[in-house]
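Consortium newsletter contribution from the modelling node. Members have asked for a concrete example of what our holo predictions look like. Here is one, prepared for the zinc ion complex that several groups have been discussing at recent meetings.
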Amino acid sequence: MKFKQILEDIENLKTEFATLYDFVHICPICANFLEVIHNDIICDELAKDWNLSPLQKRFFNYREGCQCKNCSSSMRAMNLGKVIMEIVNLKYNQNIQFFKDIIDNKQFRQLSIAEVNNCGPLHHYLKRHPNLSYSEFNSTISGISSENLMKLSYKNDTFCLVIMSDVLEHVPDYNIALTEINRVLKTQGVFIFTVPYLIERPTVIRAKKSKEETINIKKGSYHGDYFSKQKDLLVFYEFGYDFVFKLKKMFKTSIYAHTGYSGLIASIFVCEKWSSLR
Ligand SMILES: [Zn+2]
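And here is the predicted structure:
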């Protein structure tokens, strides 16, 4: 897609959502001058399953397909990184500007962190963290532990931060996963994450699991390479506005929609564990 087209789209979005936009010039992750490359990521088949309008499809293409040429961070990764920095800066009175520097921050290094499934380009920096518990679902790779979000092996009250990027939609019962994440967080610990999410519609359940069997309620829909139909990337949920109500029942919740264009399409969820005094 040409840059001119992107600018035209931004103009349309500005009209439709009456919002301001900020096009960042420096990548918040790698701190290089931000040269954006764009690829269409959402194929027609996925958009059809998801019942996306052309505009919603374009939204998700920006979210995933607009990337820093230097570090490959998508808008989703950039916003996730920005919010992690903001939370650390706010909670611990730090002043971290770029994600590449976060790992050298003394305060950040002392936090206990769970990265549940690889957070893309952010993992490149997080992996140097001395107190990081990094896991993948069904990992068979030596050195990478395997965790199931519906049955985490961690003890109660273990982590200051749990970080996750577009995973919950692939979990058979996300309510159980949220309960598990809440359990392993320390009091006032924070769960920072993304899911594909459309605020203008209710959540759609596409599949469920009964015992060990996966039952498709709607046609099987897959993220990643749609046609490789990777089992782990089967979509169980297409999240909508009611998802936020669920979060608010369990956590002290905010949605960080960064002001501007990038925030509009790649919101970040921030959930703090309530103190026991609640
Ligand atoms: Zn970058």
